[in-house]
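QA checklist item 7 of 12: single-chain prediction sanity check.
[x] sequence parsed
[x] length recorded as 243
[x] structure emitted
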Amino acid sequence: MSPVDRTGARARTDVHNGAIMPTDARCLVEADDSSPTVRLTGILDPAEVEAVRDALLARLWQRPGLLLVDLSGVRIPDPLARDALDEVCRAVADWPAAELLLDPDGPPPDAPPEPLDAELSPVVEAAREARVLVAAGCARWGLPELTEPACLAVTEMVNNVVAHAVTPMTLRLAPRGGALHLAVRDHSAGRPAYGGPVPVDSVGGRGLLLIDTVARRWGSTALPDGKVVWCVLYAEDEAPFHN
């Protein structure tokens, strides 16, 4: 593969034969800007898994859509290393406009719909900008019943970045079937932790509770330089409130 995509490269990562892995790695991730396929070559053992994971996740966030991972050129002697690759697929399953397939057979599936993105600063006004984008997306994709719950969820996701991560962030949303997938990517390693309902006299602490209430699923994925916090809302879950 020709031009190198350096997505996910760490400080010690250099271009090496068109790869985006550390130059001393036994397993290389070869990527081409013109193709949705990346190719693993060499030997993937448990010591290399974290760097491969980081490269795949960073690539998929920077270039949403379908990512095909060709394993024909890599040897995986330890089953735990293959299990770790499967875990990467599960980690991105609910990201907006993201699909990662390992060693696919046959023709590739249709690419996910194009997402809507916004770059936001960690300021109070960011939540309002996020709600405008979410409302526009729900209208575009025929999901008007999700406008209100999705705006609640994205407000809390963005406000968490403003209050805790204090870094620039990227908001991404896309439909899939009758669901809306939302994600906010920031540059802080701190992961959200939901401790359940808070006391009624508590001040604050209800952000994740609100997300948990309106979304069927939510979670976070660590990246080399931050994280992605995501949630999935289903139109059918709102049907009882719109009859």
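[x] summary fact logged: The beta strands are 27-31, 37-43, 65-75, 98-102, 116-120, 169-176, 179-186, 217-223, 226-234.
[ ] second reviewer sign-off
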